[in-house]
Design brief:
Blueprint: H1 2-15, E1 24-27, E2 33-34, E3 40-42, H2 48-51, E4 55-58, H3 78-85, H4 100-104, E5 115-120, E6 124-129, E7 133-138, E8 149-153, H5 169-189, H6 196-200, H7 203-211
Antiparallel strand pairs: 1-4, 2-3, 5-6, 6-7, 7-8
Amino acid sequence: YLDDGLRDVVTTIDDLGLAGQTLVIVVADHGESMTEHGIFYDHYGLHDHVLHVPFIMRMPGRLPGGVRLPQMLNHTDVAPTLLEVAGLSVPAAMEGQSLWPLATGAESHGGHDETISEECSWQAAWSLRTDRYKFIVAREPDEDGCYPRELYDLVADPAEEHNIVAERPDVAAALEARLEEWIAEHLHAVGREEDPLREQGTTLRMMMQALD
């Protein structure tokens, strides 16, 4: 269904002669677990099969075809990219960065050194990902047996099957300190003190418990 819909959109743009003036972006809000970590067809947790999403851009004549960007990117990069393509200034308050120089090949360096994510649906947890490691910390006990603290070497263990938090306490401590620093900075910026994951609790889990 999605393929058919995208074909219709792209074909219409081409038929109208607007392909070189129209940037088409296909992006997802999350991935899905398809049996990974014992979960089937749900976006539970902060492993890469949930966080790593498609991001496809098309603009013939402006973007080269078949190029893959190895850098870590973020949903917050979408708006700055659209603004730059439209010839508009990017507000300094925006957290993301335009991907246009990377996508066009004007620049080879960019992207993010780290990405921070959180979930507050089935579990309350934060994660920090670098190009080498993923650190995850849960804010409340998890009924499904997940670890309170997780560390994965994404180079040696891309499927995130072996939690090495006890084997590399130095790496876990450094990433946890950086994550907590980031959370504290952003809470302060909006005038709040309580971590929203602790304050709000897990929404979907509480909903299912209420239904029971």
